Amino acid sequence: MFSKYLSTALISLATLRSVHGASTPKRRATCAGGQSVQNEACCVWFPVLEDILPNMFDNECGDDAHGALRLAFHDAIGFSPSKGGGGADGSIIVFNNTELTFPANSGLDDPINVEVPFIQAHNVTPGDFIQFAAAVSLSLCPGAPKAGFMMGRPLPVAPAPGPDGLIPEPFDNVQVILARMADAGGFTPTDVVALLASHSVAGADTVDPTIPGTPFDSTPELFDTQLFIEVQLRGTQFPGRDPGQGEVLSAVAGEMRLQSDHLIARDSATSCAWQSFAGNQAAMQSAFAKAFNKLAIIGHNPANLIDCSDVIPGAPPLPASMAPHLPAGQTQKNIEQACAASPFPTFTAQPGPATTVPAIPQS
Ligand code: HEM
What we know:
- Helices cover 35% and strands 4% of the residues.
- By secondary structure, it is mainly alpha-helical.
- The chain folds into 2 domains: 4-165 and 293-311, Peroxidase, domain 1; 174-282 and 322-334, Peroxidase, domain 2.
- The strands form 4 sheets. It has a two-stranded antiparallel sheet with strand order 1-2. A two-stranded antiparallel sheet has the order 3-8. It has a two-stranded antiparallel sheet with strand order 4-5.
- A hairpin with a 5-residue loop joins strand 1 and strand 2.
- Helix 3 crosses helix 6 (109-122) and helix 3 crosses helix 7.
- It is globular, with a radius of gyration of 20 Å.
- The two termini are 18 Å apart.
- Protoporphyrin IX containing FE binds next to helix 3 and strand 4.
- The site of protoporphyrin IX containing FE has 26 residues, from helix 3 and strand 4.
């Protein structure tokens, strides 16, 4: 956790680059590195990009990229029209002494520790940096859509309300999660399912702390639709000795299934949306990008922000060898059909002995 000194230092440094759309000229510009952007205010982000790709993320869709994506969600979702909070405002960093005590934020000290030195070095607001880093992290995950990025979030004025309630937990039921997401950002049930595509590049460190880095699907380095296929399979095992709170049986050795993902895949409000993304990379990409761009500006008036999406690189496509599939050892019969409107799409199992997924290497 951070000292008061660090939070104060972040506040004073970041004041310099708390840019607001309304006061910044809008014209196409060429940045010092030769890049062309819609708005010259966006040029400050190229040095940040060139620094964090190799030095923060090691140019890979690994633990730090996953952590940056989760951090962006937990900062943004801390908002409610009735309870307050600033949304995507960087409060999770500036007021980390408060927000990291919320149980739902367990484990986020890691990505915060990783990000703070880069925020200080580049003198940008924590709210902007968190969302920028998440958008850039996606560009490292093959198969991810290109996320947008808006700059201009001012410094946060207060911590998000807590400790319980605003951040979904894996042991919350579907109605609670859908209501929370609707309240925070007007997300529809389909938006929520689309946002969970992020769990295709993810794992858990704290649900079962004895097995850190346990992935949620068999391809945590790819932003693919395997999560939507694998969570629909009948669960048979836990990756650790005892299940953690909010964990249910998973179908694949070495893989963890969150109860929330499991229930959302099977609830009548969400199961058809869940099924619609299984094997449909294009539909999943476009629904995720739309919902994620909305998430990134919770708590802000877009008219006060500058669109710097042209700074964000696109991700490589999925490798041709990674078509949607059942993990080895599975059959279509193990799919637990939930959507009443149409059958789950058919997939072929990979050949060979039953898949065992290795843990995600920890940074
Ligand atoms: C809405 C319901 C959601 C619930 C209940 C939920 C819950 C969780 C839990 C329990 C973990 C494991 C944390 C740990 O033990 O380390 C996790 C990881 C993660 N979540 Fe979610 N999540 C939700 C939505 C989202 C959304 C909307 C995003 C992003 C847009 C997201 C991104 C991630 C990522 C990237 C990780 C992996 C972090 C890492 O590997 O370090 N989640 N989530």
